[in-house]
Amino acid sequence: MRLTGIELANARLEDVTVRGCRLDLASLRVARLARVRFESCAMTEIDLQDGALESVEMVDCDLTGARLASAAFANCTLRRCRLAAIVNPERLAGARMPISDALAAVETLAAAAGIGLLPEGDA
Hints:
This protein is α/β, with parallel strands linked by helices and about 120 residues long. The chain has 2 helices and 7 strands, in the order βββββββαα. It has helices at about 100-105, 105-115; strands at about 10-20, 30-40, 50-55, 55-60, 70-75, 75-80, 95.
């Protein structure tokens, strides 16, 4: 299903599964999501500004360039998701992910924590 650019601002989604969908450039500003599962979705540049996500699962999703300003994550899980170039990645506080996924996203997560990364071998 292709929902590129869909406007769902102020929406309330509960007990929903979204699978194999294109949600790139979608707006979920100020949306409330509870017990929602996104699986194998293209969510590049999705806007979750001021959104409240509770018990949301994102599995095999591309979140490249997602905008998370003032978003809140509670009891959320991200598995095998691309997190490159996320805006306000510090807003992922409250989310969980496997260690291997966190290592794959180390540049994004380190930037959120204000940690500068050095190339290997630099003293």
